Amino acid sequence: MFRVGKTVKRRLVCVWLLVFVTGVFPAGWSGPSPALGAESGSNLTYYGITDGGSLRQGVQFNDVGTGYWARDSIVRVASEGLLLGEGDGRFQPAKTLSRQEVIAGLIKAMGMEQEALLTTSVGAQADPWAQGFIAQAKTAGLVDDKQATLAWIEPVSRQEVAVWLAKALKLTPNYGGERRSLARFLDSGDIEAQAAPWVDPVVEQKLMEGVSDRAFDPQGGVTRAQLAVILDKADPILRPTRGITEQRGKIEGIDQITGFDQGYPVNQTQVRVANPDGGDILVFQSPQRMSDGRQAPLDRSAVVYSNASKRVGGTELLKAGQEVRYLTDSQDEVFFIEVMSQSSPQSVSGTIQEVNEAAGRLVINDEQGLPTIIPLGESVEVEVNGQPSSLSDLLYGQGAEVSLADGKAAAIKVSVPEPNPGYLPPEQQVRYGRVVEVGEDTLRLLEDGREVEYTFTPFTTFVRNNESIVAEQVRPGDMANVYLEDGLTPSALRPGQITADPLQAARVVLEGPAAQVVNIYRGILQEYLPASGNLVLKGAGEYHQGSGQYQQSNWINQKPLERFEVDSDTQVFVGGREISLRELKRPEYKGRRVYAATRNDYGEQQVVHLAVEPTLTSVFYDQIRRVNYGESWFRLSDVNLYDKRITWDDGTLVLHDGRLVGPSYLKEDQDIVVLASPFGSDYRASMVMVETPYYPSGPDVNSRKYLRFICGMIDDLSVDQIKLEDAYEWTKQERVSLGDEEYLSLSQETQVIDSTDGSSPATLIDLNELYTSWGSEDADNQYAYLIVYGNQVLAVNLRNGGSMPPTSVRFRAGRITSIKPGSSTSTRVDIVVDQVKDWVGISNYWQLDDSTSVSLDLDRAQVVRSGRPDQPTLLEFENGYNRLSVLKQGDQLYWLEVSSDDKDGADELSPVLVMAEPR
Asked: pTM above 0.85?
């Protein structure tokens, strides 16, 4: 399919309209070149920027020679506008920086420069130009109110830079036993106590180095060259916030073309680049001299930098066969091209920062401390201590050697020190297993068939998908890496003890969706191909969580033949008995119906559990009435099955929210889907899928609450408190009265939207406006919907009057399948959700929606994701900021719908409160 950049699309329309209307081509036109509108295979076309010549001139520094140690970084950050020259062709690399200069560079890197330039003085001890940057640093959480009063014109310290950098990159602070990277510095004690947890991950990821092997020098200064290197290392992470995209490829050819741009003659240089997505065309042009005095199109060029020769120039530095990386901005224009060294590396060594199978990438901090993003090959060989392993065995922080083939990871070797008996070295202070249960301050994991208990404290950090979460968001079935506090090795049993003392967790990192089951398929076993590791199913259909009333609608997207990947991790069961993959070649299994649970593997469906049915299988959708764990059976509520037991065994796959859990997780009153075969007078379950969505509330709502939906009439407001009357809470999907009065806490982090006027999107207001407009004694018929953590208000949605509590309410759940922006003139975002379920309060169960998917209008809803509201500034909101940008595809949504008070028809329901949980 032909793809083309935004700029080219506009030109394409102009050219072909001219042809269509006049029936002739512009004079001298010899047919459209690929860049001027003709389709060119699957290539994308990017033009250079109009001020490319000026930009190129601006990075030609006469005091940074080709042999200067930081030249590469200086050219890169200057080309991106993060750190400019000092005038007269000078960069002044040795100049020591002030606090305001460093914070300005970080705010630019975070994509907040425009907001900073529009902000007037905030009273900081800084130069006028820096006031807005300091204000944005507060907004972004880099500094607090106290730190904002610093003398910003004074020199910055290395410690301050490290803390700001960690917060800008949203690194997780390292506390207690996690903080090991600073231990090698003899002056680590000079780092302030509140700063050390932030400095440690910066050093750990080699974003900043010590001034020597044994000294960090926390109070030392930072030069312009040093800041350039720091920003260069951080840029790959922050670059997307500025709408900048990096791509890599190999130059296939360079064409010099004379043509027309909007009817004007131009000289073009077209650079054809092959990349993993097919290829791109980079177009640079200069206008021909116009004899009639007409205004010619502007030059379009870019900065070209060779990291081998260290030269800065234009397209004259480009040649066929070169490996290049190029940056495009939010307007799809290329502004920087770097020619890589001709000798492509065959291997990369460093520490693992991220393994993302779903995205097909590996991130390594190489030996120079630079984060390197390496695409994963189609088949990657993994070894840990010389033993065959898989990508799922790789952990953050492990040392690895990556062998490359065509620029992609082909093999990964990891060496993990083996522990001596009775000794647990630092490298082994990490445990791995499946979460069995989460208590008030304990976490139990299933590790190699045995349960191990850990304790955690308020200082223990929990992370999922590189985002901080709270303990209540850890779910049974999660795969977790538990990092132990220093010195807490497994203790020996004391006299009278049955089990050892629990270990204390400093940090718990949960695996992302790549490790979870994504689909269940039903089909006929056609063939197993050991050589290719493929399983072929005939008539394979995907299970859809639709209504259980019509079972034939549960299996959708059926295909004549479907291939799935299998490997040594795939478990195969026949009638509850585990067999090897090789046994699937036996003729008696061909033509049998099978059920396959799959997860994503490089975009392919890999089978993790396969059940071969001995007889025909029935599908039951019902609630569990009784569970007998000792005898391994449960009964359903269906009157037709009232006396039938459904048993489970080692071959039974139990799933909850895409997570593998054991049968011990099955509880009474759960909604489940059961795939079961007749077994004597009863049934034997092959798969049990728990349909009851996870509700983001603690296990005991009376003692520990996570997120709460509350509504009530506003009775009084103060600077830190809101008082509601006639308040109600939806606790575990049921409405509960909170009494005549309910007091809740407000903070500067509380987000408030006003949806009383019915406009879309709703209006973002600050707390001062809330006090002024809604805190007056004569305010009448005013009420609010709130998302609350414990007693702390996270988000408020102001609504018009009506019945309290509202008469028409619906509590729903579902998973986001797509997020699509609306028209270019609207801030609306279309959220499509499937697996939709409605809570039936009278019967106390979740009813599956018959619809395949539903579209949600959240323009007037208040949204909290991962227990945190998004925090746009009022300026961002007024300029069309999209509050829903925090949502991600795959998020589980829980939302409250009430009658729309501004539309015709009181029975029309619309979302007012939304909780989003990343999978």
From this structure: no
